[in-house]
Amino acid sequence: MRGLTGARPVRVRASSQAVIAAGAALAALALFVAACGSGGTGARDEGPAHASAVAGAVDSPSPSRSEKYHRVDPVALVMNDPKVSGAVKRLLQPCNGDEYPVDVSYGDLTGGPVDDVVINVLTCADAVGIGSYVYRDDAGTYRNVFKSEESPVYAEIDRGTLSVTRQYYEKGDPISNPSGEIVTPYRWNAGRFAEGKPTRNEYSKSAGGGPTPVPDS
User: Fold this and answer.
1) Are 143 and 166 spatial neighbours (Cβ–Cβ below 8 Å)?
2) Could you report the per-residue pLDDT of 90-141, keeping only the tens digit for each?
3) How far apart are CA 53 and CA 157, in angstroms?
4) How big is the CA angle at 95 (ends 52 and 56), to the nearest 5 degrees?
5) What Rg, from alpha-carbon coordinates, does the chain have?
6) Residue 25 pLDDT exceeds 60
7) Cis ω before 185 (30° cut-off from 0)
8) Listed residue (2, 135, 116) closest to 75, CA to CA
9) Which of 80, 115, 200, 213 has the fewest CB atoms within 10 Å, i.e. the most exposed one?
10) Cβ pair 114, 137 in contact under 8 A
């Protein structure tokens, strides 16, 4: 799983917006727009953050009739969000050039008119998740409706449910080899995420071993 200790190298996802100078020729503008349209990759598009986006007060495009997905600037959302800790913001720096260590997912978690946005902030060196957040479109504004900064942490959309994985360590565990993980489902209910029953998975200590579910007692 990306974003947790021992994960694969970080995959950086950050949206980009280009600023077109006033008075640019119409032909150049058309070529630029065509290039952007052909080069996009849906939920992933690398590039510098657009500093004008503000978490909690970010205008979102009106949803089309055919789809609910609208790309956001994840770096700007996190950096301008007062609910995000200063420690996470200080660590959210470009790893290589203008590539930021963030993973972004879009999906329906809250039943809103626009797909919700799940953002995971990672470390550059080893892709450890240091913060997970969910943003919901609320009347054209993206609002933070969930956060977890208990590192290592990683949030995902699992069949309409928010699934949050937190690794844990027992005494003597090196940072690269935790004892296991706790996966907690969260479901949207009455305007907030309600925590469900967690699942505890213990990692095998043998070479190549994976997590082993621990049955409920």
Assistant:
1) no
2) 999 999 888 999 999 999 999 999 999 999 999 998 899 999 999 999 988 9
3) 24
4) 30
5) 19
6) no
7) no
8) 135
9) 213
10) yes
